[in-house]
Specification:
4 helices, Alpha-Beta Plaits, globular, alpha+beta, 136 residues
Amino acid sequence: MNKSNRRKFIATTASLAIGTAAASAMPLMVTENKYPIIHHVFFWLKNPGSKEDRDKLVAGVKTLSKIETVRELRVGIVADTEKRDVVDKSWAVSELMFFSDLAGQAAYQNHPVHLEFIKNCSHLWEKVIVYDAVDA
């Protein structure tokens, strides 16, 4: 190895070692959850094999992000994960929402966009289960 390459190698190795040491010395920071109210909804389709119905429901759920009190919205479909006894794959679409407070979640329930979603999409689902939680 020539002198120039050796210097670059030593400098790079030293930089990596210093960076790793600095990162490992940093304390883990606990971040405050800005949106402690969690609203998780699972939908079962009337026509479980219909990709068209599933896609319509996904599109409908996404309209709920227009509601001012919805801080974050995630829409999901069943993942192709390994089969285990504790994994329920019987549902079709999930909606995961975060709110700043209970008042915001309550306002969402009667919001015109939410009511319009129910009017336009309720014919697609056979069953709905809601899990509401507060960060612990």
